[in-house]
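Page header: ASSEMBLY MODEL / two components / 760 residues total.
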Amino acid sequence: MMLIDSVRRFAENELRPMAHDADENRELPAQLVEKGWQLGIVQASIPEQYGGFGERSAVTGVLAAEELAWGDLAAAIAIMTPGLYVLPILLGGTEKQKESLISTAIGSNWKPFVSAIIEPQFDFSPLKMQTTAIRTDQGYTLQGKKVMVPFAEKAESFLVFANLDETLQAFVISPENKGLKIGEREALLGIQALPTFELSLNAVSVPFEARIGGEDGFDAQNIISASNVAIAALGVGLSRAAYEFALDYAKEREAFGGPIAQKQSIAFMLAEMATEIEAIRLMVWEAAWMLDNSKDAFQAAYLALTGASDMAMMVTDRAVQILGGHGYIRDYPVERWMRNGRGIPNFLGMAIV
Amino acid sequence: MINFETPNSIKDMVTMVQSVAENMMRPVSRYYDDQEHEVPWDYINFMHNALKQMEGVGGPNDSSGEAPKIQYQRLAVMIEILSWGDTGLYLSTPVGLLGAAAVRATGTDEQKKRFLSRILADKPVIDAMAMTEAHAGSEMPAQTRTTAVLDGDEWVLNGEKIFVTGGHKALVDTDGFVVVWATIDPSAGRAGVRPFVVEAGTPGCKVTKLEKKLGIRASDTASIVFQDCRIPFDNILGNPEIKQKTTKGFKGAMATFDASRPFVAASALGIARAALEFLKDKLAEENIEIRYGLSRALLTNMESEIIDMEVMLRSAWLLTLKSVWMMDEGIANTTEASMAKIRAGDVVVKITQKTLELLGPLGYSKEHLPEKWFRDAKINDLYEGTGQINRLIVARRILGYSRHELS
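Prediction written out in full:
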C-alpha cells in the first residue's frame, strides 16, 4: 500500500499539473514517464528471478491504475506500456522466454517494449482478431493490421497478438523484421499526449520460439481478463477525477444566490456519479481479486469493463454538464476527461495488470 | 486487505435458505399474491422452527444483546435469497425485521434482551415499525404528530400511523410488537421524537386498515390508531432523557435507517436476480446462448440487455455487501447504505421492467411470476426512504452540507 500512496502523490503532484499542456502539445514530458516508471508499478508485479522485485497482483495493479488515471490517462498508459509486453510473457511464456525477454524490458529505465493488439474494425474483439498467424515450416507468418500501438516508432520489441487456428496467440517481433511497417502517428479523440501508431504486418515471418508459450502457446483468456480489469480501473480513476472536479466546482460556482451544489438537480447528479463510481470500482476489485486467486475471472472482468465503459461516459458527460459552458472549454479538464472517457471500451488491449 | 471470499458460515447457510426459497416460497408465491392479507402460517411456522434451530440469524446469543452480535453480512445474504423466493413472504418472516432493527439501533441492553428474546420463543412473532403518518412520509420523523405523554409510570400514546409493514401480523396475528415513533414535545420538532415499544394486546391500540397494494401482497401494510394507549414507562427505547430536548431520538431513527437500508437493497436484489434468472432460463430452453467477451457491436440486443443487467445486479450487490460489511466492522455506513439503496432500488425496477419487455407475452401473463416481481420490485424504491431521499442523503454527505444547506 506504500506503493499506492506514492502513486497517488505522483498523480497529484506530477501528472495532474502537466496533463493539460501534454494533451495540447500531444507530447508527454520524457522525464515524467521515466519518473512514473521509477515508482515500480510494473516491476513490482514481476518476480526477482526475472528482474522485478515482487509478485504479480492484479489487485495492486488496479489500485495503481486507478490512481495514475486520476492523474492523467495518457501518462498512465505510457507508464504501464512495458507491462503489457512483459505480463503476457510472465503469465504464458516458457521458462526460457521469461528468462530471456522480461528482464531486458524492465530495466532501471523505462523502455518502449510494446504490445500490438487493437485492430481498425468497428467490431474489434480480442476473441475475433483479423490479424492471422499461419504455421509454416520455419515458424509462423503473420498478416494483418494493428492500430493504437503506443511508441511503435521507437519500439525496441513488439508483442503482436494474432489469431492462430481460431485461438488468440502472441508473438515477439523485432522492429527490424521485414514486412513490418509503422504508419504515421495517429490522431485520436483523446489520450492525445500518447504517441500511437498504426502497425501493418505483411507476411511477417517469425521463428517458432517467437510464439509465447512455445509449441503449445498460451491461454489468452487470462490476458484478456487482466486487460479488461486494467482498462476498467483506468476508467474508475478518470471518472473519479471528473466527479471530484465537478463536485468542487459545484460548491464554488454560484447561481441564483447560492452554490449550484445546493440545487437538487446538481446535487442528485453528483450523488449518482459517486454511487456509480463506488459500485463499478467494487466490480473491478472483485474481478482483480478473482484473477489473483486463480478463479475464472473471464466473465467478471468483462462485466467490469462493460460497467466501467458506461460509468466513464455517464460521469464525464455529467461533469461537463455541471460546469456548463465552462465544461466545453479546454482550459478546464472535464472536456478532456470526456474525450478520454469515451475511449474506455476501445482501450481494451492498451494496458494490463 | 481486499477479499471477496464468502465466509464459510455463510456458504453453509446458502444451500439451506435456497432450498426454503425454492420449496416453501415459490410454490405458494402466486397463491398469497392472489389472497391478499391471508396469513401464510405454513411459511411463518416453518421459518420460526428453522430459525430456532439456527439460533437466529446471528448465530448463538443473537438475542441476548451481547456479543457475538448479529452477523449482518449473513443476514443480507439470507434476505436476498428469501426475497428471491418471494418478497411478500420474506417480509412476513418471524426473524426480527424493522421493529427489531429499531430496538437494536436505539434500545438499552436490557431492552434488547427483553424484546429480541421473543423472536426465538415458543411461538412465532412478527415485529414492525410505525413511523409514517398520513400527512408526512419522507419528512418523518421530524413531522411526528403522534404524541406520548407521561402519566405516572406509563406513557399514553395518541395518534395514527400508516404504512406499517407487518403491523397486523405484529399486533393481531402474533404476540409481536411495534416500535412507534412519537413525540414527547410537539413544539420541539424532531428533537421531541422518541421510539416506543407497543406490544400486541395493549388496550387502546388498534389496526384500522389494511392497504391494497401493487405488490408485496403477502405482507400486510397497516394503519394503526393509538387512543389513550398506555404502555409501561420503560418501553421508551434507550435511556430516557425526557427532560432534555435532544435529537437523540431522531438520530436513533436515522441509525435505524442506516441499519435497515442495506437489507432493503438485499431484498430488492433478490427479486432482480429472480427475474434475470427466469429470463436466462427461458432463453436457455430455446438454446439461445449469451456470449460474453465481445464488444457491444457484436452482441445481439438480447445479449446486450442481459449483460447490462448483470452489470447492474452485480455492482449493486457488491455495494450492498460493502454496506453490511461496514456494519459488521462497526464502521459508520450512512453514505454506503444510501448508495446501496439507491442503486438496488433503481436496478430492481429496471431489471424487472426490462425482463417483462424481453419476455413478451410470457412476461405479461399471470401464468408466470415475472409480472408479480415487476409489481413487487417498485416498493424497494419507496420504503425506508425513497430513491430521492437517499440521493439527498448521499449528496449532503459528499458535499459536506447540512440539511439547511441542501434540502
